[in-house]
Fold:
Amino acid sequence: MQMENHLRQAILRNEFELHYQPQVDLGTGRIIGMEALVRWNHPEWGMVHPEKFIRVAEECNLVIPLGEWVLCEACRQISQWSRQGLEAVCISVNISARQLKSRYLFTLIDNLMMTHQIKPGMLELEITESAVMDDPEQTIPRMKELKNKGVALAIDDFGTGYSSLSYLKLLPLTRLKIDRSFVKDIETDPNDAAICAATIALARTLGLGLVAEGVETEAQLEYLRAQGCDSAQGYYFSKPLPANNIMAFVSRHQ
Ligand code: G
Ligand code: G
Ligand code: MN
Ligand code: NA
Structure:
């Protein structure tokens, strides 16, 4: 069977789950957010990672129903966690270019925010530079509309696409996420170190928050902190965790 059909079936059978990767404030050490990352728990193949299926889902438009499931589940989880006392933690959801282009996204978000009483700033959408730059005349007004609904917006994989800096100031963003490819060799590659430092300075100048992704070592963390980086996520703090493990993780870090 083709991957497309497997995916179709997986959506019907509800085989997906979300894992959450904590984001840490480098000033206070507190957890300020979590990125929701989809996992496919296939009955025979076991846990399938998104690199194996997100592209296929995008190509055959299944990213719309899959993305709908992800948003519904993330919003349900936000409201469950806030009832359990986890209030100041924003959940980030990855949105593909196709989702951003679909009008249905707006209806869905309105419904979810109302149903789950999502407070402004509790839900963040991560959009890649290429998804924004694909058709900025369409995406910029849409992003403004989302922002007006109280949804926070981050640029994911920042530095790997080609968003021009003149667009960056027009976008209603809350944060930039420095791509992990720049963080990886920060200790040994002066160009990567310079790119991270420049991105941190850029975010500060534009009044944006910043998350460094893929932080795995103390040395990477120290360099980023010395450059004034606000927050980070990566294996150094935690891998993405099943929802059930999150409360315990957070209580160890407050
Ligand atoms: O979770 P990983 O650990 O494997 O994620 C791999 C890639 O899949 C990342 O680029 C991430 O942005 C993407 N991804 C993970 N979850 C989702 C999702 O719910 N929707 C979309 N569109 N992409 C996702
Ligand atoms: O493209 P996006 O930033 O959404 O992708 C997040 C991806 O990065 C997920 O696949 C996640 O599992 C992975 N990831 C998160 N932290 C680390 C890390 O410290 N090292 C590596 N190699 N990957 C990470
Ligand atoms: Mn992401
Ligand atoms: Na990224």
Notes: The chain has a mean pLDDT of 94.
